[in-house]
Amino acid sequence: MATLTAADLSHDRDFARALDAQDDLAAFRTRFALPLKRPDDIYFVGNSLGPMPLAARDLVTDELDDWARLGVAGHLGARRPWYSYHEQLRGPLARLVGALEHEVVAMNSLTANLHFLLTTFYRPDADGHGRRTKLLIEKGAFPSDTYAVMTHVAARGLDANAEVVEIAPRAGEWTLREEDIERTIADLGDTLALALLPGVQYRTGQALDLARLTRAAHAVGARCGWDLAHAAGNLALSLHDSNADFAAWCSYKYLNSGPGAVAGAFIHERHVRDTTLPRHAGWWGNDPKTRFRMEDRFVPTQHADAWSLSNPPILAAAPLIASLAEFDAAGIARLRAKSTLMTALLEFRLRGIEGQKTELQKPEGLEIITPHASHARGAQLSLLIAKDSQARYEAFKAAGLACDHRESGRGIAGEGIIRLAPAPLFNTFDEVWRAAEIVRNAMRA
Fold first, then answer.
1. Which fold does the domain 60-327 belong to in CATH?
2. How far is residue 72's CA from residue 85's CA, in Å, rounded to a whole number?
3. How far apart are CA 63 and CA 25, in angstroms?
4. Exposure string (b/e) for 283-296, b if CB count within 10 Å is 16 or more?
């Protein structure tokens, strides 16, 4: 697909259709079951739950058939043996997030993985002096992360209200400034044990620089972990090169692996090789060479698998195999290039022609709070609706635009945030054009 700049964009629908005509990823749309009630409906909510890859049905059916046919013998005799089932996910996951194969594992759910990783990487007593106790997160983090952090710190016998430090955007701003995060980390200095940050902030869609902020944490002797729930499958990540200590993500959003699908985790190889690290232990994290000796001493394998506890959930992992095959075939670099252009066109269509009194002026009462720079966002645009946001949301849906509505968090009556997420695997540029029309018409109404 051609590389375009903002000056090349057009409000003409034929422009969007021309982009679709030259899209070498267009065929991937036919590989998904899009939940459309009408042919012209638009599914821009893959950042909440991605649609089903058509191949997932056959993969799950294969496992059900093998279970019925083989019973326990399926552990070694199934078409995809269950004992080594998770190994199929290593290569595609590593390629997707920019990691080495022994640094990634598919296991559990996102919040469970965060708790397991916090056990290892939040070490408030590691300096021997009791100073390094602080845990930094962003204010307004996804609630599950806040719950996990607060309860985890409290379970260590510490006062979570004192030890958990929240960094917020500046007054009157919606997004975090990375220099403010760096300054906060530097100010915390040798009191900071861990920074846990979002790859993409769920409400605003802001993407943070993993390598830059990881360096800042390491500079004061702290560790840095990442919640990539809205980044995995959305951004072109380089987890290994970023030097992040760990990361965790779910797979039911951009990764299209189904509700409650098995999640993923990354542990940098410098930690993977360290078998002395504290962790929760389980049978499946034990060295596979000795696993079936049934010994009472845990010997962690030198692989991210060492953080897994139990054998993989086959029926929850099968759809992830189907989805990752599509990402592998498309390539995250090509997907990211298309996504960048789609989001730029959507923003262009919604911002209108600045300074001109035309029908394409930015709709009154609408503000885009996602950063403008492509490197600072993924596929999502968050629209702040000043008044009657719930009614606007219902109007968008009635017109065929599937999106989602969030409270703004400021307690202002009627104010809310609409999130639109055109996904490059299955959405089109014409849908971007039509989505902007729906938003404009509903805002005028």
1. Aspartate Aminotransferase; domain 2 (3.40.640)
2. 14
3. 30
4. ebbbbeeeeeeeee
Tokens of 121: 């990487």
Tokens for 402?
């599937």
Digit-coded pLDDT (tens) for 40-71: 999 999 999 999 999 999 999 999 999 999 99
pLDDT in tens, 163-216: 999 999 999 999 999 999 999 999 999 999 999 999 999 999 999 999 999 999
Domain ranges in the chain are 6-33+332-444, 60-327
Cα–Cα distance for residue pair 366/435, rounded to 1 Å: 15
Distance CA 385, CA 306 (A): 46
Tell me the three state secondary structure of residue 262. Answer: coil
Cα–Cα dist 442/445, whole Å: 5
* CA–CA dist 64, 213 (Å, integer): 45
Residue given tokens 């929240």 in the structure block: 166
| Confidence check: pLDDT of 264 > 60 | yes
Strands 223-227 and 192-198: parallel
CA–CA dist 19, 338 (Å, integer): 10
Q: Are 381 and 368 in contact (CB under 8 A)?
A: yes
Predicted confidence at residue 127, as pLDDT, reads: 59
For residue 383, CA distances in Å to 174, 373, 414, 415 come to 11, 16, 14, 11
Distance (Å, whole) CA 146 – CA 166: 10
DSSP 188: H
What does the pLDDT read at residue 351?
84
- Mean pLDDT along residues 240-260: 97
What pLDDT is recorded for position 355? 36
CA 96-217-243 angle, 5° bins = 30
Decide: helix, strand or coil at residue 137: strand
Specify the fold of 6-33+332-444.
Aspartate Aminotransferase, domain 1 (3.90.1150)
In angstroms, the CA 105 to CA 222 distance is 24
Encoding tokens for residue 105?
């594992």
Q: How many residues does the chain have?
A: 445
CA distance 68 to 76: 14
